[in-house]
């Protein structure tokens, strides 16, 4: 489903009932909302299209994600928030005996796991779970590594190595923290968030629709578009964020269709 023409896009959109939306670069840029974002979301609502906000930021709880969006004039309810942390909760709950885990996460995200029924500090955990833990310490690393060395499966919310906080300004992300555990145990984590299939399964379950009825919109080829590409889901690249038009040519992940900005999609319904 790559490089479709205008006519094909119009035909495909007739079946679409939901959009999963990337946030940074798609709805806002570095905490500055785009002037068209509210009108775009209202346009989806008017057309009866539901939408979710996808995020590989598992340092924030659902409440914090809602507040962050609200500060950007974007209204969202808890059902519309799907972070890599939330997707990890859903993934774990689909497994047998999921309750007992050892969780590395911020205090707010710990609460989300607890409210979902997890014992996050189990003496004999069934899983070691790494979220974007901004309170990561040597003590936590040591304890997680001990469990993983003993054979406890190691799950991480997403694989991104860097979190972009400004132009050419990064912070180490979950991939970098996971790499520390991997270095000392030789065990690789199973990653859940974008662009993995587990994230796709989580949003399809949340939306209650089949993948033919969903479209992905995002600004990154290696996460947003890759997720659509590899799972055969209609996807739209916006050029309002990270990706510049000239980078498309050399990318192995080709979008279904390219638009300048989110609101442009309303012209094709
Ligand atoms: Mg983005």
Q: What would you note in describing this structure?
A:
The protein is of the alpha/beta class. It folds into 2 domains: 6-56 and 195-268, HAD superfamily/HAD-like (Rossmann fold, 3-Layer(aba) Sandwich); 91-191, Rossmann fold, CATH 3.40.50. It is 35% helix and 19% strand. The protein contains 9 helices and 14 strands. It has helices at residues 6-13, 37-46, 62-71, 84-93, 107-115, 138-149, 174-185, 197-207, 221-231, and strands at 18-21, 28-29, 32-33, 50-55, 81-83, 101-104, 127-130, 154-156, 162-166, 169-172, 190-191, 214-218, 234-238, 257-259. It has a 6-stranded parallel sheet with strand order 5-4-1-12-13-14, with helices on both faces. The protein has a 4-stranded parallel sheet with strand order 6-7-8-11, covered by helices on one side. Helix 9 (221-231) links the parallel strand 12 and strand 13. Helix 4 (84-93) packs across helix 8 and helix 6 packs across helix 7. The structure holds magnesium ion (MG). The site of magnesium ion has 8 residues, from loops.
Write a short abstract of this structure:
With 269 residues, the protein is an alpha/beta fold. The protein has helices at residues 6-13, 37-46, 62-71, 84-93, 107-115, 138-149, 174-185, 197-207, 221-231; strands spanning 18-21, 28-29, 32-33, 50-55, 81-83, 101-104, 127-130, 154-156, 162-166, 169-172, 190-191, 214-218, 234-238, 257-259.
């Amino acid at each position: 489903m790559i490089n479709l023409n205008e006519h094909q896009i119009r035909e495909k959109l007739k079946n679409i009932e939901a959009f999963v939306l990337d946030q940074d670069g798609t709805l806002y840029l570095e905490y500055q909302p785009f002037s068209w974002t509210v009108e775009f979301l209202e346009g989806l609502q008017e057309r009866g299209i539901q939408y979710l906000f996808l995020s590989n930021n598992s340092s924030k709880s659902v409440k914090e994600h809602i507040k962050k969006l609200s500060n950007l004039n974007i209204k969202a309810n808890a059902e519309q928030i799907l972070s890599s942390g939330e997707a990890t909760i859903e993934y774990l709950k689909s497994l047998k005996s999921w309750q007992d885990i050892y969780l590395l996460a911020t205090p707010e995200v710990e609460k989300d796991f607890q409210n979902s029924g997890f014992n996050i500090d189990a003496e004999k955990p069934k899983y070691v779970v790494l979220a974007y833990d901004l309170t990561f310490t040597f003590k936590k690393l040591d304890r997680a590594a001990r469990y993983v060395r003993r054979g406890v499966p190691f799950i991480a919310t997403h694989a991104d190595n860097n979190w972009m906080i400004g132009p050419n300004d990064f912070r180490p992300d979950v991939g970098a923290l996971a790499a520390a555990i991997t270095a000392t145990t030789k065990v690789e984590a199973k990653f859940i968030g974008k662009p993995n299939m587990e994230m796709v399964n989580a949003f399809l379950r949340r939306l209650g629709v089949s993948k033919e009825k969903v479209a992905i919109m995002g600004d990154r080829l290696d996460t947003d578009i890759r997720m659509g590409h590899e799972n055969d889901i209609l996807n739209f690249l916006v050029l309002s964020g990270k990706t510049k038009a000239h980078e498309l040519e050399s990318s192995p992940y080709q979008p279904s269709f390219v638009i300048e900005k989110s609101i442009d999609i309303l012209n094709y319904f």
